[in-house]
Amino acid sequence: MLHPRLLALVLFAGTAFAQDANYKLVLEENFDGNKLDSEIWEVRSGAKQRGSFTDEAVELKDGLLTITTWTDNKVDFSGSIKMRKAKYFDFRQGKVEGRLRFNPTKGVTAVFGNDTDEDATKEKQVKIDIFVSFGYEKGGAYMTGVTWNTPGKPAEKKELNQRNLTSVGKFWHTYGVEWDSAGYRFTMDGKLRMTVKSSDGIDARRGIELASPLAAGESAASRVGYGSKEKSKAIYEVDWVKAWKYVPPTK
Description:
Largest sheet: 12 strands, mixed
Shape: globular
Low-confidence stretches: 1-18
Oligomer: single chain
CATH architecture: Sandwich
């Protein structure tokens, strides 16, 4: 349950992103070709929660980024990519959108958000969840939200999130977030789903994370495994991601 003061920061409306001619496209990733652009993306690897991230889970095929979760010799494997720090957005007003779909599977999560600097120990961090879908939701809901975190000061952590009750499983949808000095506005297919007013200012660092981690809270759900990679139905697909920077009009 949200603290009343934090709950007051969350507003709802029915409008889409403002179509402003001053938004400049700074990233358009259509995942064409047969491998990721290594200048923009890096693939994570190693142990993560209940299983392991591996580059074998991440593939480009037919213009789609595909992340597959499977089981081999009782070990669960999945994948994650994140934007390289050199490509982080350095602007304080902009927006990010992505078109994606996820086959809901118990124990598996689909994530589309910003990539926080996990190695930072001094700077304040802002984690943005544009789309998070948990397998146990069976495609009937997804989560959006913002988390403010000061490393070393857990008492200062603030989190606002919302469970959006709408059908997302197996269907293509476009999810996005727009941010400026006023806060964050989350959309699905151009419709505003959640607005968060920012009392802490806006973190200028922005990256993109696309991942399909194994959910620690559903450890009992996948004990039978997901099958081989070729037969697994635990698939997360991304058609494209785009980012825009707001450029003020010249006076």
